[in-house]
Write a structure and sequence with these properties.
Layout lengths: L7 E5 L5 H10 L3 E6 L9 E4 L17 E4 L6 H8 L4 E4 L4 H10 L6 E3 L8 H10 L2 E15 L14 H9 L2 E5 L2 E5 L6 E5 L2 E7 L7 H4 L7 E7 L3 H11 L6 H11 L6 E13 L4 E10 L2 E3 L2 E3 L1 H18 L7 E2 L7 H6 L16 H16 L1
Parallel strand pairs: 1-2, 1-4, 2-3, 4-5, 5-6, 6-17, 7-12
Antiparallel strand pairs: 7-13, 8-9, 10-11, 11-12, 13-14, 15-16
């Protein structure tokens, strides 16, 4: 293993995901300090109350730490990344496109890592998509879909806000990057609706912003079509279009987030669907389709039950931090999710949580290794 580069880590925002991020890093041997405006429970790591509404309040702590992880709302990350650049490694979970573009520019001359989009989507889904795409000489379509849903939906929305309501609504309002017929373009959210079935469950998927991360730029000369869609239960897109546009709830983001989170609070029994596929001509010049489709359920970690959306998000960002620490990823500049090797990701301590999702199920890594060996045999 390469020499470690990261020992002390700041985790900002101890909400549903932030607490688990800090816990996993602590259990992996890092010295973790969690920061939040108000502490309401005891943690296995050091935690301090601090007003996080102004990023400069955190900056004095950078000199005593090697990395900072933002689990804060997306609109707070530009200022934080600016203060971190060149001083401390920076990681976040943002899905916001303008924030990512800002950090991408900031990272050009940075001597430290700037890695936004390290969650589930963008994040894990891009790692999976890139892994599937490497088996193709010519790509007809990369389709990436993710849904964080209640297992037992109720009402017309069929949803529960287990994730940041501000982040979800932001994805529903901002235009979405795609590649269509070889051309990168922006399309409207809550459109391009399609029907999906996973293990017999009927679902719908539609365009939302940010899920592709930087993949359109990475694959613009390799893929004829790329798109990302969120997975929901049937009827959700129609209802959200009605609420946001016909009722003009889009005009007040915070009020809309408050109304929706009050109506559809978090649930404990959730499920995260990951549905990735790549179609094209493989290395034998045969038209083929490769898929990665899983439904991830809540998981017990360190004696505590965690929602699926919490552990899938937290495990992803912690695995990336591990890979930077041990030299499997660069030690400076911008890290694109599609450049992260999937098999190495699964072999990390926290990325390994994705590896097995059922007591009697073959691990993801075992399946990948069998597929790799089969492909190598076929190539002769």
């Amino acid at each position: 293993m390469a020499q470690e580069k990261i020992k002390k880590i700041l985790v900002l925002g101890l909400g549903r995901v932030g607490v688990l991020v800090a816990t996993l890093l602590h259990e992996s041997g890092y010295e973790v300090t969690g920061l939040d405006a108000k502490l309401t429970e005891e943690f296995p790591f050091e935690a301090t109350e601090l007003d996080l509404s102004q990023a400069e309040n955190v900056a004095p702590m950078f000199k005593d730490h090697d990395a900072v992880v933002s689990c804060l709302p997306f609109f707070m990350n530009k200022e934080l990344a600016t203060l971190a650049a060149g001083k401390i490694h920076y990681f976040d979970l943002t899905e916001d496109v303008p924030t990512t573009e800002y950090i991408l520019d900031l990272a050009k001359d940075s001597e430290t890592v700037l890695a936004p989009q390290c969650g589930l989507a963008p994040g894990f889904i891009g790692i999976v998509g890139a892994h599937l795409a490497q088996e193709f000489n010519k790509i007809r379509h990369i389709k990436l879909r993710v849904g964080a849903l209640p297992q037992h939906p109720t009402g017309h929305l069929g949803y529960a806000f287990n994730w940041s309501p501000e982040g979800v609504i932001n994805e529903y309002l901002n235009d979405c990057a795609v590649i269509e017929h070889g051309e990168k373009k922006m399309v409207s959210p809550l459109e391009w609706k399609e029907k999906l079935f996973i293990n017999g469950q009927e679902l719908e998927a539609f365009t939302t912003s940010g899920g592709l991360g930087t993949m359109c730029d990475t694959y613009k000369d390799r893929a004829e079509n790329i798109d990302y869609k969120s997975i929901r239960y049937p009827g959700h897109a129609k209802m959200m279009n009605f609420l946001l546009h016909e009722l003009f709830m889009r005009d007040d983001l915070q009020k809309t987030a408050d109304v929706l989170s009050h109506a559809k609070p978090p649930v404990s029994e959730d499920i995260v669907y990951v549905h990735a596929s790549v179609e094209g001509w493989n290395k034998h010049d045969k038209l083929a389709r490769e898929e990665f489709i899983h439904g991830y359920l809540p998981k017990t970690i360190n004696g505590r039950e965690w929602r699926a959306i919490s552990w899938t998000t937290a495990a992803s960002i912690c695995a990336v931090i591990e890979m930077v620490d041990t030299g499997l990823l660069p030690s400076h500049g911008f890290i694109r999710q599609e450049d992260i090797p999937f098999i190495d990701f699964l072999k990390t301590k926290t990325g390994g949580l994705y590896n097995k999702h059922g007591d009697n199920d073959t691990s993801v890594l075992e399946k990948l290794e069998v597929a790799y060996q089969t492909a190598e045999t076929a190539r002769g």
